[in-house]
Amino acid sequence: xxxxxxxxxxxxxxxxxxxxxxGPDHYLPFIVMARARHWSIVKTTWVTILSGLGHVLSSxxxxxxxxGIGVGLNKLEFxxxxxxxxxAWLFILFGFGYMIWGIWRITGNxxxxxxxxxxxxxxxxxxxxxxxxxxxxxxHDHKHRNNITPWILFTIFFLGxxxxxxxxxxxxxxxxxxxxxxxxxxxxxxxxxxxxxALVLLASFGLNFVKLGRLEKYTHIIAGATIMLxxxxxxxxxx
Length: 239
Known about the structure:
The protein is mainly α. It is 71% helix and 5% strand.
């Protein structure tokens, strides 16, 4: 291993860590969705890892193809910029839509009565709300509502670029060797995903001890607003 590649590898690890830490869009969506959706640690882990893989691999593939066919660095950076704006708008739209759904979920949660007449002629009346929380057997999953959310996050993260990867890491690595591209990309990806996962799990674990009380019913609204603000931060503040 050349001295330059060693330095580049350590640089990749450092930039990946810092890039993830200072980009709240890398972890806040998972933290707030895990709390609002009551995801288990296992589900939170695989959703975060899967989204992180998509996030890194999309830039790796774009950079590798671009370098392979001789696309200039300026064009690759432009493509990454376009992808960044697209991901930001998707965060905004998804967050806004989810927030509106959270508001509807609360305002539409009106108790109403149903009457049931039994075979013996007894009239039974009960109240319930279709949109409210209600207990289920352990292991029950709202498959019709929950399963799409992880895939929406994965899609957004797949479209979102790892901005430093191509201009700072992959392009210089390509000047050294194919192995340099693989090594630097692998280190960048592993550090990025592990940092994302550590932040998400630590925050999720800490939030388990936070009792929101009456605010608990607003968690979906809070989650949507947080994701929307993450997108706004990417678009206008360069997070």
